[in-house]
Design goal:
The protein is α/β, with parallel strands linked by helices. Helices cover about 60% and strands about 10% of the residues. The longest helix is centred in the middle third of the chain and has 53 residues.
């Protein structure tokens, strides 16, 4: 028998992934480029004022030293001429630095807000297909932590990566005016800093991506455990779940320490080489002032004013490089975050091109002709030649898994791009405003969309203006009010995550109450009894039949028990490469 070795996928980002993430990151920053370029301009002005400040300080101290050495009185007129410029530099530099930081911060806030909005729009536009990207906990982590991971790159690193070239060049020419050897010495030692920065930065990029992956998995696992806490307690598996969370937290701690270790190591290396170069420069200038240089004994190659000017500039020559090295982990973290967000960012969200508003006050008619929906790699998801629903007609869609039942509902909800024609009251669905169209629908999924909160809060998600009497009325319609009435807090009774506190059948009744509060004339029901026992499913089906009278209803279900109220059943055939078949099959009353 042939053995197949299974290997785990590598967490290390590939070169293609890194390049794609970098391009995506630049695209995200494009709308805020004017803010970032303005911040860069202020940073360059800051460097110019720093050069001027160092020149003025060197001149003042040179004049003072010369006068003291010659035992002369200091020229106060020359000093008073310098002081206003020196005061201007001392005031302008902090102001320019503050404005630069504010512009970068605003750009970061706007960019992250736009990205978060894009991600939320993609998730919302995906409908039930959002689960193909990640679990809810992982998606929440991506929208929150992953987006915030871009802050350091935008607010600090983006401007610094340009300033690291401009500022040293500016200082190089200023130093070159006084000493060619000193300028060459700085120029030769400067490349050592970015070389080690790149070597350590590549390792930091890999470590940052692994850290974000661990965080995403831990968030998803923790949310799943919280949602299933009742089952865990029932199975007496609390200790095992606790150990699982502790193990995940330990892996996240280990990955976080790895990132910090690399960040501190890169900072230490950069500081070492910068300090070594400055010390070498100081030795050269000091020996030159003493006139004991081996190749220029008895000579002073750089006078005191020039030597002081160079020594004042030298730390700033390496400062942008050191700062870039400190912030380089911000770039690594941003690239890792964008790489993790690629599936959501690269998804092309389909939007209706039309802007028509369709308002119907009674059950609508639906006509479908030559409907075809394709998935990835042009794989057919649904082929439907013809389907017609009269106003108030209620049908059941059945068929094997993968034949396109849920895809049909996603198409009618406006989440899926399609070929063919879908008409609502003789108006093309693709020409309707999707948001307004969705407000006319009542949708019930397999799992009730119940959130942590009170019963009243969950009901008011469907109708925020509903009064307590309206809530009680719909609860009576779904035969849930007698149970809630016996609870101490009644409508204010809190529910846990996913409706913890109510049974599956009770949660579906609560979800049906939300449908009634929407007062929609078109109901799309996606296997509302999928996770219920047969007796509860039968009662839910019968309840839906009683409450949906006078509405146009499309119900997807694998079971027929309790659906004798339906006007017709449509069997979707298994998808094949052949052309679509007509799927409209009328069933006489009572035949189910």
């Amino acid at each position: 028998m042939k053995k197949i070795k299974l290997t785990e996928p590598s967490d290390k980002p590939s070169e293609k992934t890194t390049v794609g993430a970098s391009q995506q990151l630049n695209a995200l920053l494009a709308p805020q480029s004017w803010l970032l370029h303005s911040a860069l301009f202020l940073a360059i002005l800051h460097a110019v004022f720093f050069v001027l400040q160092c020149y003025l300080l060197a001149k003042v101290f040179s004049q003072w030293l010369t006068a003291s050495f010659r035992q002369q009185t200091l020229d106060t007129n020359a000093l008073l001429a310098i002081l206003p410029l020196l005061l201007l530099c001392l005031l302008a530099r902090p102001l320019l630095q503050f404005c630069r930081e504010q512009l970068s911060l605003i750009a970061s806030q706007r960019c992250r807000a736009a990205l978060r909005s894009q991600l939320l729009n993609t998730i919302a536009s995906s409908g039930s297909a959002k689960n193909q990207y990640a679990a809810d906990g992982s998606l929440a982590s991506q929208v929150l932590e992953h987006v915030d991971a871009l802050d350091g790159f935008i607010s600090r690193y983006y401007v610094q990566r340009y300033l690291v070239l401009i500022s040293p060049i500016l200082l190089f020419f200023a130093i070159l005016y006084y000493s060619k050897l000193a300028a060459v010495l700085l120029l030769v030692t400067a490349p050592l800093v970015p070389i080690f920065m790149v070597l350590l930065g590549n390792a930091a990029t890999s470590a940052s991506q692994q850290q974000l992956q661990v965080l995403s998995r831990m968030s998803s696992r923790f949310l799943d455990l919280m949602r299933g806490m009742a089952t865990i307690q029932h199975l007496q598996a609390t200790t095992r779940a606790t150990n699982s969370v502790a193990s995940a937290a330990e892996r996240y701690r280990s990955s976080s320490m790895k990132v910090l270790r690399l960040a501190f190591l890169s900072t230490a290396v950069l500081e070492f080489f910068a300090s070594l170069a400055i010390a070498l420069l100081a030795v050269y200038l000091g020996l030159g002032l003493l006139g004991i240089l081996p190749w220029a004994k008895g000579e002073i190659p750089v006078p005191y004013q020039g030597a002081l000017f160079i020594l004042l500039l030298a730390p700033e020559f390496y400062a942008p490089l050191r700062q870039l090295g400190t912030d380089y982990h911000a770039k690594a973290q941003a690239l890792a975050a964008v790489a993790e967000l690629q599936p959501l960012l690269q998804r092309k969200v389909w939007e209706h091109t039309g802007k028509q508003l369709l308002q119907f006050n009674s059950a609508p008619t639906i006509t479908i002709s030559n409907l075809r929906v394709l998935g990835e790699h042009n794989r057919p998801r649904l082929d439907l030649a013809h389907l017609s629903l009269a106003a108030g007609q209620r049908i059941v869609i059945q068929g094997a898994s993968g034949c396109g039942k849920s895809t049909l509902l996603e198409t009618l909800l406006g989440f899926t791009q399609y070929q063919g024609e879908v008409s609502i009251n003789q108006q093309n669905l693709s020409q309707l405003c999707r948001t307004h169209w969705q407000q006319q629908l009542g949708y019930l999924a397999q799992t009730s969309a119940i959130m942590a909160g009170s019963i009243a809060d969950n009901l008011r998600l469907a109708n925020a203006q509903a009064s307590d009497q309206q809530l009680i009325a719909v609860l009576q319609q779904v035969e849930l009010w007698p149970l809630i009435q016996q609870l101490p807090l009644q409508l204010a009774t809190p529910l846990g995550e996913r409706g913890l506190g109510l049974s599956g059948g009770q949660l579906q009744r609560l979800a049906i109450s939300q449908l009634l509060l929407r007062n929609a004339n078109l109901w799309l029901l996606d296997e509302p009894s999928a996770h219920l026992d047969p007796d509860t499913a039968l009662r839910i089906h019968q309840l839906l039949g009683k409450l949906s009278q006078g509405k146009t209803v499309i119900l997807v279900s694998h079971h027929s028990a309790g659906l004798d109220w339906a006007d017709s059943i449509i069997q979707l055939p298994q998808l094949a490469s052949s052309s679509a078949q007509s799927l409209s099959q009328q069933v006489p009353d009572g035949a189910i």
